[in-house]
Amino acid sequence: MSAFLIFVIVVAVVAMYAVQIYNSLVRLRNQVKNAWSQIDVQLKRRHDLIPNLIETVKGYMTHERDTLENITKARSAAVDASSVGDKSKAESELSGALHKFNLVVENYPDLKANQNFLSLQEELTSTENKISFARQSYNDQVLFYNNKIEMFPSNILAGMFNFTKEEFFEIEVEAEREAPKVKF
Amino acid sequence: MWELIQANRRKSIILFLAMGLILILLGFFLGETFLGQGGGPFGIFIAVIIWSILSLVSYFAGSSIILSLSNAKEVTKDVHPQLFNIVEEMSIAANLPKIPKIYIVNEQAPNAFATGRKPEDSVVAVTAGLLSQLNRDELQGVIAHEISHIINRDILFMTFAGIMLGAIVIISEVFLRGYWIGGGSLNRYKNKSSGGGNEQIIIMVFAMILAISAPILAQLLYFAISRKREYLADASGVRLTRYPEGLASALEKLSQNRFNLNSANKATAGMYIVNPIKKTGMQISDLSSTHPPISERIKILRGMMHGVDFADYQTVYNKIKNNSEKLIPDSGLKNKIDIPIVTQIKDAAKLTKKEEQRKLGDIVMNVNGYNFFNCKCGVTIKVPPTFKSKSVKCPRCGEININSAN
Predict the structure, then answer these.
(1) Catalytic pick from B146, B230, B296, B325?
(2) Chain B 372-401, CB below 8 Å of chain A: which residues?
(3) N or C: which end of chain A has fewer CB within 10 A?
(4) What would the pLDDT profile of B81-139 be if each residue is shown by its tens digit?
């Protein structure tokens, strides 16, 4: 009788522990999703800002058609990308194109005095920063989540209930790492 | 991160209990002295009532009281878009559930603080002087420090500890004053009680000592913890920005400030990023300072050569302080992430004193609802909100401009 009682208690404790682990896995997965949607919001915002930017600078930068076209091209590629891997590649390219643009802007003092352009630039800088901070926080969450999936004993439950590891949002170009912080 | 918050909360509770103990002791001896033997419990009762009222008020209205005491005004994005963007950036980096409200204090001394009840309901306040003197990276460092106070749950604690400290100070003051005024009545008690005279004197002497030392003791307790929290907020701040130099150079600028922050007082001083009260004459000892020396904070930040994780801050902290004090609990040190320091391009444009003054003036006018618009000749016309006329003549070219505010 007492052996049976002990058995029941052990099973109950194990079950409770398992539920707890399961819940924490779900919580972590949701946090990862949440962080990803934050990146998405900011990327979308950057896509929306770019046409405005091109429109504002077009009149000033008649000799920089290539730079501007590159930005437009990179933007539409980024808009079309869907998987995490594709997205981080396309967005890196877009960041690179914007980085080049920022270097070129230095040659146009008239443009740098334009109030409209300046406020647009502050918005763009900030959006770049927000993207990199959102990515930073996404990667943190992914790290916690992936660790949990790999570690014992949560790995058992993760396998049973199909919790799969998430991809990091990597930065591919070294120059891009600096791009968000560039001063206009 | 979560473990770090837990550890912080535990420390808050310990401090809280310690301060509560001082309060109860104070109430007990006060009651015994004034109300005769057996008055102790009643004294405790009164002390706890005073404290509960203050706590309730501070919980429900603490941040609004502090904000109005500090002359802070809530602003919208158009007043200072950059500040709004930076606060938003740091909220994203810190994974805050909601972006804090933003207040500006119209003062020249550069400083900042955070307040509120919980992360969903928090406020970041900065002075106009801060906005005019710091560049974007530096401002980001300061805001990251303030957001860290919010995620580390320092904001409610600081408000509560301040209130508790206030209660202890008030009660001791009442006692000491009451003692000098009511000295005669105490003697009367002594004469009446035939046997307990000696006991009464002992209790009185004890109460005196307690009343004098309690506020000092509570203050030291408060300051010791608030100082540690400043370091901790620095550490979490640079973990968010990945750029210690931003905060370091901001602190350097703040330390060179010549102005006094008029809206700050002793009770709110602990909340600011640097001590807002200028030392005058006598040097305040290290022990009773709410803030760690700025030079030391800068040294630690500049010493972080390898990375910006908590472990890096802890290592440099110990090296510079030459001790092995644990600043960050072990739980915050494990789960280490290798974080590279982001190299940033410093903006070369340094404002002259005159430009800085103009910028400061613009911010103050903006907060106060002035309307800005540009004349064709390039002059920026600034119209006060009380100016109701539909048109304004440009002082340089004489062109008649439409006052777009009306």
Answers:
(1) B146
(2) 374
(3) N
(4) 999 999 999 999 888 888 999 999 988 889 999 988 888 889 999 999 999 889 889 99
Phi-psi region at B126: left, alpha or beta (left = phi > 0; alpha = psi -120 to 50) = beta
Q: Decide if pLDDT at B44 tops 80.
A: yes
| Chain A partners within 8 Å of B337 (Cβ) | 140, 143
Task: For A162-178, write each residue's pLDDT tens digit.
Answer: 888 887 776 554 444 44
d(CA B144, CA B239): 9
pLDDT (tens digit per residue) in B293-322: 888 899 899 988 777 888 888 888 888 888
Ranges of chain A with pLDDT below 50? 173-184
Structure tokens at B197: 């005279």
Nearest to B245 by CA among B317, B318, B321, B298: B298
Cβ contacts of B347 on chain A, cutoff 8 Å: 183
What is the rounded average pLDDT of the residues B173-181? 71
Q: Which of B86, B92, B345 sits opposite A38 (nearest CB)?
A: B92
Confidence of residue B285 (pLDDT cuts 50, 70, 90): very low
> Can B230 be counted among the known catalytic residues?
no
Please give the full DSSP string across B107-146, using - where no structure is assigned: -SS--EEEEEEETTEEEEEEEHHHHHH--HHHHHHHHHHH
Partner-chain contact B337 A136, CB within 8 Å: no
Interface test with B, best of A181, A182, A184 (most B CBs within 10 A): A181
Distance CA A174, CA B173 (A): 63
Is B345 in contact with A143 (Cβ distance < 8 A)? no
Nearest Cα residue in chain B from A115: B374
Residue B331: predicted pLDDT: 61
Per the document, the length of chain B is 406
Give the mean model confidence (pLDDT) for residues B140-146: 95
How far apart are the CA of A1 and the nearest CA of chain B, in angstroms? Answer: 42
